[in-house]
Amino acid sequence: MSDKAKVRFWGVRGSIPAPIGNGSLQRKVSALLADYLKSGGKDVDAFLMKRTPLTYGGNTSCVQLTYKGHVYVLDMGTGLRELGNALIPQMFKDKGLEVTFVISHVHWDHVQGLPFFGPLYVNKQTGVKNRWHFIGGTCWQKTAEECMRGQMDPPTFPVSWQEIQKITSAIEFSDIYDQMTTEFKDRGVAIKFGKLNHPQETYGSRFAFDSGATLAYTTDNEPYDPLVPDPRLERLVSGVDLWITDCQYTKAQFDGKAGGVPRHGWGHSYPEAVAATCVKAGVKKVVLFHHDPAADDEKVLEIRDQTRALIAAQGGTTEVDAAYEGLEYELEGALVGAAR
């Protein structure tokens, strides 16, 4: 088993899935063909590799984290469908999977992929013993289990949660609360949770690995003051090697100066706030995530470039990437491997 924590993005969009439309795709293909012909038109694969990503992707939030053979899934948006398909060969080889789902909150865009997670439907009577552990939700609102069951119960879905429970070897649920820490000592992982600023409670998470690497995941968070990071958020991301965070809008969009509608109270962030937190908390690398469904690839790049410029202007050294489907990192000690 590798001591490298491996991260892969399967869904990077916020709020609702946003597949690329025919018009946008046609413009992209046209521009690529023109560039390819200018380059001399020889090795197509090499040409395309230099232009990765070709698009950022339209699936909602889903990030896979693997450490010492254990799989953690950060949120269960529509990207979970493709992740499930990718895990099926391993499931049959090992006669079962054990997956820990870490749920930031139970809004639809963070749980809507679960009914389409293929391994969920494999009956234990086939000899495949799957074990699912869901960490998330609170006991003072609807629990995560109630929400999972609710989106699959008839008449809204053809397979009921009760049936899933019957055919699965083990399903466990754990509620969370602010500043709670969950330790998996046998796995070399500790997860600390912190409350974020988003309607109906959202929790960020900080993973500490016994290799020395750290990762923070804080999707769906609205800053109280863009220049003064929330102390709870700052503690959660302080000094982390990799911070995956919501940066859905530009500041102009957030204030309603672009796009016409102010986004105050919607529970999402923008470059000024992310940059200030990176500099003050000493974040090594930040990956912008939960892209607005209305944002095309050029807007995502604009937000990334704004964040880079703001960090540099404040004397910060944090590296900035924008998440796309298929993006991967490896965390080894305090080093973050190159994006692929």
Report on this structure.
It is a single chain. The protein is of the alpha/beta class and 340 residues long. It folds into two domains: 5-20 and 55-327, Metallo-beta-lactamase, Chain A, CATH 3.60.15; 21-54, no CATH class. 29% of the residues lie in helices and 23% in strands. It has ten helices and 15 strands. Strands 6-5-4-3-2-1-14-15 form an eight-stranded mixed beta sheet. The protein has a seven-stranded mixed beta sheet with strand order 7-8-9-10-11-12-13. β3 (70-74), α3 and β4 form a beta-alpha-beta unit. α7 packs across α9 and α9 (271-281) packs across α10. The longest helix has 17 residues, at 22-38. It is globular, with a radius of gyration of 20 Å. The mean pLDDT is 92.
What attributes does this structure have?
Metallo-beta-lactamase, Chain A; 340 residues; globular; 15 strands; 8-stranded mixed sheet; alpha/beta; 29% helix; 23% strand; single chain; 7-stranded mixed sheet; 2 domains
Distance separating the two termini: 21 Å
Largest sheet: 8 strands, mixed
- Count every beta strand, where a strand is a DSSP E run of 2 or more residues: 15
* CATH topology name of the largest domain: Metallo-beta-lactamase, Chain A
How much helix is in the residues? 25-40%
What order do the strands of the largest sheet run in, or round the barrel if closed? 6-5-4-3-2-1-14-15
Instruction: Identify the CATH class of the largest domain.
Output: Alpha Beta
Question: What is the fourth-level CATH superfamily of the largest domain?
Answer: Ribonuclease Z/Hydroxyacylglutathione hydrolase-like
Instruction: List the helices and strands in order.
Output: EHHEEHEHEHHEEEEEHEHHEHEEE
Computed CA radius of gyration, to the nearest angstrom? 20 Å
Mean pLDDT: 92
Poorly predicted residue ranges: none
CATH architecture of the largest domain: 4-Layer Sandwich
Shape descriptor:
globular
Distinct helical segment count: 10
- Which structural class is indicated by helix and strand composition? alpha/beta
